[in-house]
Specification:
By secondary structure, this protein is of the alpha+beta class. It contains 6 helices and 11 strands. It is elongated and about 75 Å long. It starts with 6 loop residues before the first strand and ends in an 8-residue tail after the last strand.
Length: 241
Amino acid sequence: MSAVPPIRREVLVPGAPEVAFAVFAEQIGAWWPLAELGVFHDGTVAFAEGRIVEYSAAGEESVWGTVTAWEPPSALAFTWHPGSDPAVASRVAVAFSATEGGTLVTLVHDGWESFADPSAARAEYDRGWPRVLAGFAASVEEPEGATWVVLRHTAVGADGNAFADPRFPEHVAFLDRMRRAGYLVAAGPLEAGGGEGMTVLRLPGRGREEEAERLARGDGAVAHGLFAVEVRPWRVVSAVL
């Protein structure tokens, strides 16, 4: 085992782990900086048949590694030897964990013992991974823009505290559906009594206001009269998630 420690990098991206895993594993050719960090520099790269393969514009192939774990949407691992002999391969593992605000993506790169100069190899990758993960995160954040909406909930059918109403769990179930879909940004009451609340949703892609309206009306607590809901499109000019 190498005495050189692994590289560990983390990035928080919006949406559910299913989304982050799909972008990383199925759309790698869209965000990997091949012009600088590729073998041929002019084609694409993809996970294909248990391998990571770069394809040149002329149809040449370069195998970067072999998949050793494929557990969507939580984990992915592979050997790593882009542009070099498979005998000189290190190891990369990527984990996708749901957390507040989206998905925490953690990349761990180790196996430096395969290199003639483990410290130099680690230093080179330590400079490269931040650029790679920044491109990945940008691709997850706004692949085709996003539709933001604010849902303003007002209790109209509750006798006292809306939280104690037997219909309130239907609202919790709605929020959970939005979370699992990767749409939920934030939700909570605007006052202690639970009479008013606000939910912020972000749907990937532009022009999905009508869909957001249907989703809001599909909240069981709205359909059964506990809450009235006002759906307001929101033009977001700055966000940190």
